[in-house]
Design brief:
It is built from 2 helices and 9 strands; from the N terminus they run E-E-E-E-H-H-E-E-E-E-E. With 144 residues, it is an alpha+beta fold. The longest helix is centred in the middle third of the chain and has 16 residues, at 68-83. The radius of gyration is 19 Å and the shape is globular.
Length: 144
């Protein structure tokens, strides 16, 4: 559980997440507000089958690195470790929520790229969008 009430900077957020065993967050519920924009939703992610403990340890080393050169060397170690692992890394696959009054369902591919969006705008107009790998809308269906 995370709570952040950063009133001085106009932002608030809270979240409840569940981790996959020896992995990162795979299910999350969150609310956020910043500069008058509000959102809340459920996110479901894919996580790799390999243990991320070495990545977390390298990330900690990066945060403690004293020089840009040291940081860059550790980042290279982390990139090599992740590249050596099979399959895709982490990606958010499903989002169900609301953003500034619009209701959304976003389904993404294994690389985390949105491919299908269902929206009901705050004013009530529905839309279905299909997107290609680059995020370009290839088909849009509206109800009005």
């Amino acid at each position: 559980m995370i709570f952040d009430n950063n009133q001085g900077h106009g932002g608030h957020m809270s979240s409840l997440t569940f981790d996959q065993y020896k992995q990162d967050e795979t299910v999350g519920l969150a609310y956020h507000e910043r500069d008058g924009h509000r959102g809340a939703g459920l996110t479901i992610g894919d996580r790799p089958d390999w243990d991320i403990t070495p990545v977390l340890e390298l990330s900690d080393q990066i945060s403690r690195a004293r020089t840009p050169q040291a940081r860059k060397a550790i980042e290279a170690q982390m990139a090599a470790y992740i590249k050596s692992k099979p399959g895709p890394t982490s990606a958010d696959r499903v989002y169900v929520g609301k953003e500034d009054g619009d209701a959304l369902v976003i389904l993404s591919d294994r690389q985390g790229r949105p491919r299908l969006k269902l929206t009901v705008a705050a004013a009530g107009s529905p839309a279905i969008e299909m997107l290609d790998e680059a995020g370009k809308v290839t088909r849009r269906i509206t109800g009005q």
